[in-house]
Amino acid sequence: MSGTSLKILAIDDDPADQELLRRFLEDVPGYRIELECLTGLEESFDEDVARPVDVIFLDYLLGRDNGLNKLQNLRARGVKTPVVILTGQGDEGLVVDLMRAGATDYLAKARLSPDNLARVLRNAIRVGELERQAAVSQENLRLAAKVFENVLEGVMVTDAHASVLSVNPAFTSITGFSTEEIVGKNPNILRSKFHSAEFFQNMWGLLSTSGQWRGEIWNKRKSGDVFLAWQTISAVRNDAGKITHYVSVLFDITERKRHEELVRYQAYHDVLTGLPNRQLFHDRLTQGLLHARREGEMLGVMFLDLDHFKEINDTLGHDAGDQLLREVASRLKVSVRKGDTVARLGGDEFVLLLPKIKQIDNLTFLAAKVLESMRTPIKLAAGEFTVTTSIGISVYPRDGDKPDMLIKQADEAMYRAKQDGRNSFQMASN
After folding, report:
1. Which residues pair with 35 in a beta bridge?
2. Are 291 and 314 in contact (CB under 8 A)?
3. Which of its termini does the chain have fewer beta carbons within 10 Å around, N or C?
4. Strands 31-38 and 4-11, how do they pair?
5. Chain segment 239-253, per-residue pLDDT in tens
6. Structurally, what CATH architecture does the domain formed by 4-146 represent?
7. What angle (nearest 5°) sits at the alpha carbon of residue 247, between those of residues 191 and 138?
């Protein structure tokens, strides 16, 4: 025998009625039915009906009790199984009460037949499937609501006209706007002055064509403070393809961005003086050489080493030495042009990158200017001290066309300046 398998529980205190139901169910076409019968008076009734079945047939009259009480009890306990009431009465008021109490269908015993049973079974199975789907949907909605309430990202939902419908707690925490303050408003309440009208035109253009925009955006909190957010905006469409809602998810990346920039800065700058370090200088020199080669220009590299700096460190201590290095860095930055680079290679060694040199005399003039800037005594905690420096200069293309070669030539020239008595400069010998 083929057909859909069904487990049916019949609750009827009349054995004759139970047997009649059994015979008719055996003749219902399209189903393979497994039937279990209870009188409804057993002490184990609650446990019995808790077992998973597809349909319950419940007699309205059960001795001292009635089916309506049993039905209300089942629904109160959360039993969602479809229940078909079997009744010998035709009172319409009774039928209404049964349906309000949660009955799926009803059938008068006088009309029991395979065809009528097939009809109520089809209806009960359909209702049961809808109940299961509704339960799944309800659970999904419950989980979605839980996620909405607890995710760390701020979530904002608007209608098709960009009027805010709801926001989650993270959104209010990030922006400072309460739910009451933001619902019904346009999201441009968050707009900062950091982006142009073209930026937002492009955003809405992407939303219209692809249905999604994502990127970094500067938003404004209720306090007026701006913050950098990574934000995703998605268009929600109905079955007809029409946009019905927009969902925006954002999280504050201001601190993360600040940390990234700090790490990047520290990777390319000297911690003590704030000047570019060896790595950044090398990168700029490489780019400067490419430009100079392309434009047919000269480029200068100036290597500086402070005279007798170790004695200052040993005599006054490292704190005083650090203070002196910071002051030297400051004076060097004042001495050079806007497009030049002053870097600290380490210790008391500094190096200058001087692009777009018109003639060699420009470099000797700058070297003399740097030496002059050091003549003014430097005020330290222990008193005033005058520091001098020795300078070596190399020039592209005369002294080399590679970064390391130009630095090496300038370094060797600086040592000749020291050997010649310090507080002077020398040009590379090439």
Report:
1. 8
2. no
3. N
4. parallel
5. 888 999 999 999 999
6. 3-Layer(aba) Sandwich (3.40)
7. 145
Q: How far apart are CA 235 and CA 84, in angstroms?
A: 45
CA-wise closest residue to 106 among 126, 118, 120: 120
Tokens (6 digits) for 94: 């009774």
Distance in angstroms between the alpha carbons of the first and the last residue of the chain: 104
Residues 6 or more apart whose Cβ sits within 8 Å of residue 260: none
Sign of the torsion angle spanned by Cα atoms 356, 359, 361, 364: positive
Q: Which residues pair with 304 in a beta bridge?
A: 350, 391
Its CATH architecture, for the domain 269-427, is 2-Layer Sandwich (3.30)
**What backbone phi and psi angles, to 5 degrees, belong to 376?**
-70, 125
**Cis, bond preceding 377 (omega within 30 deg of 0):** no
**CATH architecture for the domain at 152-256:** 2-Layer Sandwich (3.30)
For residues 108 and 144, which has the higher predicted lDDT (pLDDT)?
108
Sequential DSSP letters for 309-350: HHHHHHHH-HHHHHHHHHHHHHHHHHHS-TT-EEEEEETTEE
Tell me which DSSP letter residue 29 carries: T
pLDDT band at 1 (very low <50, low <70, confident <90, very high): very low
Ranges of each domain in the chain: 4-146, 152-256, 269-427
pTM for the whole thing? 0.55
Paired tokens of 409: 């030539």
Q: Are 158 and 245 in contact (CB under 8 A)?
A: yes
Cα 172 from Cα 263, distance rounded (Å): 30
Collapse the DSSP code of 166 into the 3-class scheme (helix H, G, I; strand E, B; otherwise coil) and give the result: strand
| Strands of the 349-357 sheet, one edge to the other | 341-346, 349-357, 298-306, 389-396, 425-427
> Which residue reads 């492009």 in tokens?
202
pLDDT in tens, 268-293: 999 999 999 999 999 999 999 999 99
128 and 55 Cβ atoms separated by less than 8 Å: yes
3-state secondary structure (DSSP) of residue 181: helix
